[in-house]
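Final report, closing paragraph on structural work. Over the funding period we assembled a curated collection of sequence-structure pairs, and we close with a single example.
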Amino acid sequence: MRFKGTAVLFAVFAALAGWVYWTDVRGREGRERREAAARRILDVDADAIVELRLTYPGRSIAARRAGAGWEFIEPPGLEADPAAWDTAAANIGRIDRDDTVAADAADLAVYGLDPPAVRVSVHLEGGTVEEIHFGNANPRGAFRYAMLSSNPEVFLAASSWASLFEKSTTDLRDRTVLRFDPDSVESIEVRGANPLRIVRDPEGWRLSAPIDARADDGQVDALLSAMQFARARDFADDAELETPAWEIELNAGERAHVLLLARPAQELQGAIHARDASREPVFVVDPEIARILAEPLLAWRDRRIAIFDRAAVGGLAISSADDSITLRRSDENWRTTNSIPVDGTRVSAMLDALEFEEAVDIVDVPAATAAFGLDNPRLRVVLTDAGGAALVQGAFGAEAGGADRVYWRSGGDAAVKVVSRGVFDRFDVTEAELGPAQGP
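Its predicted structure, as stored:
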């Protein structure tokens, strides 16, 4: 019987808690939503807005919807930034009001509303036009005087609302310099200063002019990324690019995208002029694309010392005129041919040098190998797989114009590469120096 009474009390408590929740918590949420809606200046759905006009003393900017985007009405002929205009339209229905200042002001000029500092004209489907006027800031500066053209009441609205509509024409123009899909680009032709031709092949990017060689994929991708994300800092509508410093043509199947770049001008404070050859606007852009194009040919080359699959490496052999070392990997551990364990971190550092270090120079048409000390190299290096098949065969030759550089040539590569002395030093070891790692 006592348990039954407790259950009844629990049920009553649960019902009371539910009533409190629905009347207080949910009720408060509903009241807050209604109060917020009541403070909205205009109950407008952004999708119902077909035209927006922003009018300021002495100038006006206007655009209308065109398909999924917008087109300028005033000034005409400019390319509109869809995101900027969508943001403006979306904020119309969010503007809320604060206290009423005057129910029917006799002199609107007192509030900066005759004429208003900002007039936002909202054209809706069906022909309805609503206008929001923003005037001066109130004495504290946190609010602006505002009113609707259809109502004589002057009220306060947060200054942040007015600032959302204080725009220049440049703010609302499309700043995209070149529209293209990087994944569809099959070749790149750079004409003018430092001419290049780069083609995509199954292994990545390859230079076909001024030389035929593997390209540095990172460098090419950096160029495409800089072009894809280039945005105008400003516009130079009266400028022309009759003799650009660079003309970059991106070939994507049957379509070509061409970007023209002018040389940096001091008056632009480090920026340059750019133009999509298929469009009229002349953009003022940061010099990042020009900086990449001005890189020397070596920067566009694949400067890897050796190309191999690290996971496939099962053996390493190092030989000189006086000594030789042969190592095998088993269960991630390295041992000599006599099964003596060696310091795996030292071996890993060798593989890191071959995989990640880059040549500091490349000799494409080398003279006789003796000129580089490669006819009788100081060190030979061979990487093999688990079955003993060679993955990399290379040799270190003489010093390359100084003690800090050494010539290197990888088997099958016609070019001779100049590498840092540090790469050579990784392999210039004795078997004793490769002993097991010592504890702390």
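Residues 175 and 231 are 5 Å apart (CA to CA). The two ends are 73 Å apart (CA to CA). We thank the funder for supporting this effort.
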